[in-house]
Amino acid sequence: MSEPPTDRPWTAHRERTDALRWVVLAVAGLALAALAVQLDARLGTASAPFLGRYKIRIGVGSILAPAVAAGTLWLASRGRLARLDWPGIQLFGYAAGLIWAISLALVDGWSGLTKALGSPEEYLGDVRQVGDDPVGYLRHFTSDAAYHSVASRGHPPGPVLFLWGLDRIGVDNHIVLGFLITAVSALTIPLVLSAVRDSVGEEAARRYLPVLVLAPYAIWVAVSLDGLVAVLGAAAIVAGLRASRRRVRGWPASGWALLAGLLIGLAALFSYSAPWLGLSLVCVYFARRRAFLNVMSGVGALLPVLGAQLLGFAWADGLVAAETDYASRVAPYRSVLWWSAISVVVLLLATGPAIAASARKIRNTAAWPFLVGAGAAVVFSIAAGLARGGVEHAWLPFFPWLTVAAIAPERPAGELPPTPLLLVTMGAVLAVVIEAVLVTPW
């Protein structure tokens, strides 16, 4: 399980080159964002490339987050993770990722876990509208869109109903609720690791673990219901991979494919952009020559959407209502040209330096289907003029897949490179800095 040293000098050189390339692009992007602010462009924020404001803060997370990062990097550099069996790797990845996200949030103290929940622009304020009649809420969701919170207007009713369900079983303390949402969102890590293992092998997945655990976008994982979409999407891809394994045929394959579709359909009730992850499933089935599985996954994806429609919520009508609200509430006040460029800067910062290595080696990895789905979602969002601030949240379901090629060989079918510890370290430092200086509305 130890990492091969044969290509280490060449790999280290490429890693430094990737780091330098990312730094140049990130600095240029930040300069562009600063120029937009100075020119008083229509951005809707003074803290471009993000939404929020800048204020230096020192808190518990200011010490805890660097300690978590240092511990993870030390274990990876010493080869300690190689001694764990696969369940141990997944458990470590989940625990380390959860602690990393929580420690970053705690820079703001306990409010880091609660401020998003208490904001009048977020979903929790709509829970009281559900009352004792969730079916009635579904039936009138689109027609009552003007009375919803800002967050609910741009999403299907899934997030509000999820919070309503937790409230009904007694989970109403904001700190407990914030921790629970973060804990569920962190499940994305072991799921993505499983997908990488299934597509490019266990050794590659082990080396990808630090990249995934210490990703800068963990800043927005804490208390984000977009993190639930990421979990559902990742679980769908894992199910699709199980369905398309060489030795899995007949009803077991159909069952896994149906489950994959069901999860995508459920995710679509939380986010209108979630179906893009279905493209990754299509590419997986294409690469593995299992075209019929598309039919089963397609049927599965329709079931939750049609079920919601039978209860009164038409997904297509909800999408139109969200687009109409966006066109009147956001589009006139945020420049599409500036934000199209600035959103790319957000992508660079949220994914960290690993995105540079991943973009360079995308042709060298069997995990390319994951990048196609996630990449298509990002490109469409920008091309359609929908990326006008807040993509650090909206693109959370796609970020983990965009860096999977960071651990791809330098040449097709070549030797696996070591974990890109330099890139991971730079990303972790970036996350600590952003969290220390940026006060987000979430």
UniProtKB/TrEMBL annotation:
Membrane spanning residue stretches: 20-38, 58-76, 88-107, 175-196, 208-241, 253-279, 291-316, 336-356, 368-387, 421-439
Keyword Transcription regulation: no
UniProt keyword list: Membrane, Transmembrane, Transmembrane helix
Keyword Transmembrane among UniProt keywords: yes
Protein name: Membrane protein
Species this chain originates from: Dactylosporangium sucinum
